Amino acid sequence: MYHSPFRIGQMKILNVHERVIQQPIDRVTVLFKSLATKEDKIWPQEQWPPMRFKEGLKEGAVGGHGPIGYEVTYRDSNSIKFRFLKPNGFKGTHALVFKEISSQETLLKHTIDMQTTVIGTLMWAIAIRWLHDALIEDAFDKVENQLTGSNKITKWNAWVKLLRTVLK
Questions:
Q1: Closest to 30 in 3D by CA, of 143, 136, 137, 152
Q2: Is residue 5 part of a domain?
Q3: Would the pLDDT of 44 be above 90?
Q4: What is the pLDDT of residues 112-158, one digit of tens each?
Q5: What angle do CA 69, 154, 166 make, to 5 degrees?
Q6: Which residues form the domain of 48?
Q7: 77: domain CATH number?
Q8: Are 44 and 138 contacting, i.e. CB atoms less than 8 angstroms apart?
Q9: Are 100 and 25 in contact (CB under 8 A)?
C-alpha cells in the first residue's frame, strides 16, 4: 500500500529571502542583538506590527507579530529559529541567519519551511505570503541602510498595498 506524506489540500512551502550586505558580520550581529526590543534595528516596525516577546528572544519564549505567533526554538549570536504557533494551519519553522561570506560581506537569509492545511494554504496564497515577502525585504532594507548609509526602499506591489489598506 502506498502512503503519501501529504494529505489532500496540504502544501509544502519553502520561502527563502537572501541578501548580501557589504559589511563584516560583526557589524551585522550588533544589530541582531536588538531584535524584538524597543530599539529594534532589524524589524521594520515603522511600517509593520512590532515583534513582541515578553521574555525576550530566548529559547522557549513565545511571542510574534500581528496575527503570527511563534516560539523561539534556537538562538545563537547570528541565527534564530522559530516554530509557528499561529495561525492555525501553519506547521513548521522560520529562521533568520547571518552568515559570513568574506571579511567584508555578510549574507542575510530568512527561510520559512512549513506544511499548510487547506485553510493555511489559502491564507498563505491570498495574503500572508505577499505581506511576509514585503516585510522581509523591508527588514533587509533597514539593515542595509543602517550599515551602508544607503537609502534602499523595496517597493510594495499593488496587492501588498491593497491588502494593507483592507486589513487596517
A1: 143
A2: no
A3: yes
A4: 999 999 999 999 999 999 999 999 999 999 999 999 999 999 999 99
A5: 55
A6: 11-167
A7: 3.30.530.20
A8: yes
A9: yes
What is the tally of structural domains in the chain? 1
The pLDDT of residue 127: 96
List C-alpha distances in Å: 96 to 10, 29, 56, 152: 25, 12, 16, 20
94, part of any domain: yes
Distance CA 13, CA 44 (A): 24
CA–CA separation, 168 and 82 (whole Å): 26
User: How far is residue 135 from each of residues 66, 111, 118, measured CA to CA in Å?
Assistant: 12, 13, 24
In a domain, 132, yes or no: yes
Q: Is residue 155 part of a domain?
A: yes
The whole-number pLDDT of residue 4 equals 42
Whole-prediction pTM value?
A: 0.92
